[in-house]
User: Fold these one by one.
Assistant:
Number 1:
Amino acid sequence: MNYEIYNNKIKLIKADITTLKVDAIVNAANSGLLGGGGVDGAIHKAGGHKIHEECMKFRNKKGRCHTGEAAITTGGKLKAKYVIHTVGPMWNGGYNNEEELLGKCYENSINLAVENEVRTIAFPNISTGVYGFPKKLAAEIALKKILEVMKTNKNIDQIIFVCFDDENYNIYHEMMRGIQ
Ligand code: ADP
């Protein structure tokens, strides 16, 4: 079941993010932008070598992508035109500014999207896999930040939260029902 709020501007779906036809999908990357497991691995695998090549160009020019920052590349073989790679914080009990850094991932990804005239963008549940961020807290931060952005931003037509696992989907579903 899909869920839509704000006149279809914010949407929740359960899907594999690599299958989506949107302007940009966001990747929960690592700071080396080398690809890895989870959603990162899936995106690099489905998008092909062009994504990796552009990640390496970014690294050669700017070095690592730090936690909370974002970098944009082609979507390669994906249906999405762009991939926005953002580096989520690894959960460390909340002692390393993880909450603010996770908010920055969403904010910086949106800023980069707007700069590149992206109108539809899909986010995975950043940091809630291998990086161990508590799922409910991560969803609260993501939703709060996106609602904030959508109040002032007129350039983005649609933001899609893409959940892969039932637990995240149920958390988002409950939360979005609460703000309907
Ligand atoms: P992180 O290191 O930021 O935790 P992970 O890739 O381990 O990144 O997990 C982030 C989230 O991405 C998890 O909630 C996981 O269920 C989800 N995920 C994994 N594969 C996909 C996919 N193909 N499409 C969408 N979400 C995915």
Number 2:
Amino acid sequence: MYVSQTVATSISHEVSEIYWWSNAITYQIYIRSFADENGDGIGDIRGIISRLGYLKELGVDAIWITPWYPSPQHDNGYDVSDFMDIDPEYGSLEVAQELIDKVHQNGLRIIIDIVPNHSSNEHRWFQDALASDPGSHERNRYLFRDGKGEHGEEPPNNWQSVFGGPAWTRVVEKNGELGQWYCHIFAPQQPDFNWENSEVRDHFIQVLRFWLDRNVDGFRVDVAHGLVKAEGLPDAPFQEHFGLLDSRDFPYWDQDGVHEIYREWRKLLDSYPGQRMAVSEAWVNPPSRSALYVRPDELANTFNFDFLTVKWGQESIKSSIDRSIEGMAAVGAPVTWVLNNHDVVRAVNRLEMDFMAADSPKDPELVIETDFFDFQRAKIRARSAALLMLALPGAVFLYQGEELGLPEVLDIPVDRLQDPIWKMSGNKERGRDGCRVPLPWKVSVDGAFGFSANSEITPDQSWLPQPLDWGNFSAEGQENSADSMLQLYRNAIGVRKRNPSLLSSHFRWMGSPDDSFVFTRSEDSSFLCVVTFEVGEPVPPDYAVLLSSQEIEFRQIPPHTTVWLERNGSACL
Ligand code: GLC
């Protein structure tokens, strides 16, 4: 029996100090698609307030809200025109305060997205820059440069936008002639700030204070690895850019200079009471590089994209876990675990297709062809992955709808696609809308399956159309079904919260047969997590099953299953 075999690997990873974010479960709310209270087919802040009970029952510790600032919505709020206000589509500063207060009254925490790499082109600063001359103080808040070529007709360098096409756009000067170029690593409507300019730095300190004073518990730092560009803006060594996940050595990613910014931010966060934090979105590789963002005097967490992009398989997952834990151990920071977010294909689909290519599907035709998609197989793997993730040491980030087992919506009509990637890739990539479809709350079709408080809104009228079978995935539909995905998440989160060893940083591999792995989270091995792949395994004789991602018959763990076990008589709960 594998449990009695010698221990194969032991990783002792002590986090320097335990903060709330060391082992919290944070639920990401993509505000546009979560819940629509004012009945316009777009999610809003009051919608979030109306669902706080659901989140409490799910058992999460914190929520993260994607950008809610005034925005022309070219990139669903990641193009911010005022960092210190709320988009009227979503509510107002008063409603935001009501949410922050209610979140706290419910014993939860709230973190908000901060977007420091760029603003909207409608931001006052950018409008001022356009109206000012080359070399002006106003232009120096962004990255304006003269073009190359005799008349400046070529972009200043070869950088490509993450969304497709050149990362530079040329402007018309006051004299009506084509003039300088400005840099936008994302859409042209998202000009990059110049972080060498102390005015930009000071502005963001002011923005952070603004929200900290309103009692948010922390920030999710958008494109945290992009703020500082290599000196002189040199050409990139690669001509093509493969989207957000492309973490190769570009002169605009992961420059050492970014860390100084986060050191300053950490000081500010620490000057506030109540353990304020920040988590970085830094698509960098390997985890030892991500670890630099969470050194003791920098940010609190960083998303673990190594785990998110790993292939489904015994060896690959095991080594990703090793890399992740070792990477963070080097700096004494908590590990994080993520399976989904608003930028990647939902895990249900990724895991089924045997590849974890998290990026948006490249071929628009391919994704409409869903015949090859085996939903049963997909569900089995997604359930196993969820239980595995919730058994690992550290913090977990869930993405709305993950707990409902929502699949990627692969067939949104092209005339309804909203992601700037669709247009900027020259209609080659459908983009990320498939994971952003509004949540189904109710079985009945009214109000877009309960997404909208306005029962007249049809699934087709929500800002992204919902599939007609979306009600099957609804929270209401899963509520009373013991083997639903929702109940699996609720049960697992409940067990995790009541079991101190699952909240500790203790982690140790146990010996196991080739096609499975086993780890314990307790010194005395009273708690075990077993994950099988192609081949099933028997439950070890002296252990009882606490939770399993698949039904266990005759004490036989099926393939592609995760099981939580406790030693008989140990009462680890
Ligand atoms: C981040 C966001 C993504 C957005 C991009 C530009 O990667 O997660 O949704 O498009 O930044 O702000």
